[in-house]
Amino acid sequence: MSQSPAGPAAPVPASAAPAAPPFVPMSWPATLGYIGASITIGLTQGLAQGFVSTNIPQIAGDLGATTTQATWLMAAFMIPRASMPLLLIKIRTQFGLRRFAEVAILVYLAVSLAAFAISDLRSAVAVQFFAGMASAPLSTLAFMYMLEPLPPQWKMRLGLPMVLATVATGPMLARVISPALMGDHGWDGLHFMALGLAAVSLGLVYALPLTSAPRVKVIAAMDLVSWLLIATGFGGLTVAFVMGSLHWWTDADWLGWVLALAIVALTLAVVIELHRKAPLLDIRWLVSPAMLHLTATLLIFRLVLSEQSSGAPRMFQVLGVTQDQLVPLFALISAATVLGGLALIPFMKPERVPLFHVIALVLIAAGAFMDSHATMDTRPAQMMLSQAMIAFAGSFFLAPAMMRGLLSALARGPNYILSFVIVFLSTQSLGGAIGSGLFSTFINHRQVLHLQVLREELVAADPLTAAEIAQRSMALAPQIADVAQRNAQAVAQIAQDAGVQAYVMAYNDAYFLTFLVAAAALCALLLHLFRDWLAARIKPLSSSTPTHSEPKT
User: Fold this and answer.
1) For residue 43, which of 172, 134, 205 has the smallest C-alpha distance?
2) 10 Å Cβ neighbour count for 532?
3) Given pLDDT bands bounded at 50, 70 and 90, which one contains residue 2?
4) Which has the closest alpha carbon to 41: 160, 202, 192?
5) Most exposed among 85, 156, 170, 548, judged by the fewest C-beta atoms under 10 Å?
6) Are 79 and 128 in contact (CB under 8 A)?
7) What gap in Å lies between CA 404 and CA 421, rounded to an integer?
8) Whole-angstrom Cα distance, residue 463 to residue 465?
């Protein structure tokens, strides 16, 4: 047998990667240790994201920047999060899971230390960009540590709901603990918390090593080219939708250029991948009817869940509710998210996925409809039930959808897992940014319309308006002696209340729109299930009908 000349090994497609090592049962203490490590690492990643998005106004004050400028911190954190996992899967295969875990957590610890060197907005944006890049592997590690000790039959049924609920709980839990951390030490309190979690995660990663499959060279030069184009496209979309509603779409020319660059980059990536023998992504499979249906399902889910991440917190901010007053609400939301994941465990089976989605959409639609009746007097206590329903539905929806996608990818071969992962991550990361941007844009648009109508109704000659001005002027008499100043102050208060009322009406419109979208998705799902039921009933009848041949003459 002749040997091939020595040289660098050619990259192998993911399908040629060796199978995972056989499962070896662990002791109960070791199993609980790995599950605890998964929860710790997942919360470390989720809190890192939540600390930024939750405290933008306070961080802006610490940095001497406006809230709009400080929003770049959130954009910088999210830019690498959308595309990094795509490359990390191949890095993990080529360099080994154990080394990947150790290096990833060390890099995150280094970035957590670098956060203490922040001195202005520019340095903060740079650190947040690297923090987003360094935290991207943590989600993967959380999955790996949750699945590592579980037998194969429990990986999807127990591991998947638990780890997804853990990762989803992090941003909400950040709203629970942020007021206490920010109150005493400002932004440094958040940095100390992130650093402490990173140090604990580092110890867990080294104490509880992951089982590694044999390393295989799977990274090709064109993989890096495609990834850079995808990263550019995803990053551009993230920036546009995070900042678009703040600068307003038609008032900032650079938003159009960013969107154009993103579209061109993604188009080039698709063209390159379609002409490769071993592509990074299987574009043809991604545009198949089944995958398009799954992508649309996941995207709609992320859009309707924007009601919780971008709706209630910002509406309460407009109503003057402080972060401390929101702690009980988000503690309940965090608990409901965990309960949603736990409730799936006894019933998690592929054939029950449509039922889970029906239940989730009913809960989301009901919760959004309840929220659409908010007033200026609404406080967190009045929205606890509705927000808990939506949070429970979020966990109840996501894990079954991911299980169905993973099983579909595995049925076609290991190389399709990477293609599914990019669909899942793009709909979650990009879907979250797009949903938040569209939600905020819709609210701003409706607020302007409602405010215009309210101003037309607030005419000084109107008896009701005149009576309200007189009543408020009398209430101000002990503080302001001059009658003209009192009347001017009363008019200013009425105008301010009109602005707040316009925002509340706009949020109600957004909540009701969320209800309509969830209800439409529910109707579409029920029609789809009815069609499948009819097809299953008709097929046996048609197959059992005897065929009569023509008699021979």
Assistant:
1) 172
2) 11
3) very low
4) 202
5) 548
6) no
7) 12
8) 5
